[in-house]
Amino acid sequence: MNATVIGSQLGDEGKGGVVDLFSEDADVVVRYQGGDNAGHTVVHDGEEYKLRLIPSGVIRGKTGVLGNGCVLNLETLFDEIETLRTRGLNPDVRVSSRAHVVFPYHRVLDRAEETSKTDEDQAVGTTGNGIGPAYEDKAGRRGIRVGELLDETVLRDRLEYTVPKKRRLAEDVFDVDTGIEFDVDHLFETFRAFGDQLQSEGMVVDAGSVLTEMARDGANVLFEGAQGTHIDVDHGNYPFVTSSNPTAGGAITGTGVDPSAVADGQIIGVVKAYLSRVGSGPMPTELSEESASRVREEVGGFGTVTGRPRRIGWLDVPMLRHAARVNGFTGIVLNHVDALGGFEELKVCEAYELDGERVTDVPSTTAAWARCTPEYRTVETWSDRDWSEIRDDGYDALPDAARTYVDYVSTELGVPVYAVGIGPGRDETIVRRHPFDSSED
Ligand code: IMP
Question: Where is the active site (predicted)?
Answer without folding.
Answer: 12, 40, 138
